[in-house]
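agent: user wants the structure for DUF2971 domain-containing protein from Flavobacterium faecale. delegating to structure tool.
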Amino acid sequence: MYIHNPNIKLPSDNDTIVWKYLDLSKFLELLLSKNLFMSRSDKFEDQYEGTFSEPTYDEIKRLSIDNPNFLKYYKSHREKVAISSWHINEYESFAMWQIFTQNSEGLAIQSTIGRLQECLLPEKNFTQHIGEVNYIDYKKEYIPFDDMFFPFLFKRKSFQYEREVRILTDVTGHNLKLNDGLKINVDINVLIDKIYIHPKSENWYKNLVIQLVKELGFDFTIEKSDLESDILI
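agent: tool returned. relaying tokens verbatim.
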């Protein structure tokens, strides 16, 4: 269930468009299970995920001199936070297609900030928060640590192209060990506004996706990628 956190930045317009690029197997797993997979924060490719910038880390080390468990807690907290990443963009992103899909057989889910908020169902006393990622210089800029989610809402400037908004779940306080991540209940019909099919996919693949979605009982609008538009000369 989504809980608004006033400390976390989020676009004010609930109609702000967000995207998730994924392969067919992950898409079908989402439809069949009606569960959204959230990756454990320290399982991301970026090893800085959930860590602090140098100025913040220096301050935490000073605070930890008399309380060594303070720093230890922050390190272990990464194992208790799960993340679902979405890309903010009014339009499709060629770069996102390239990074997150393979072999021309991928899909893009189009949703909105409002839909992300509304689709999250009550989940075993877990609460979900949604926040926009801030991109900073980790050698110079400070990450506040007065909110436990802040380390997961900052990334290095090298990742600015991601324009990321995140659904965050913290399982601290629950007797639960996250392995690769966590699956949470979502209302699929609320979550998904439209489906876009990879711009380089063949017609048989597009027809397959349309047939599978229909047979699973969903009636999402399925679009061909805008990047596939005919050339006008």
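agent: one observation worth passing along. The chain has seven helices and eleven strands.
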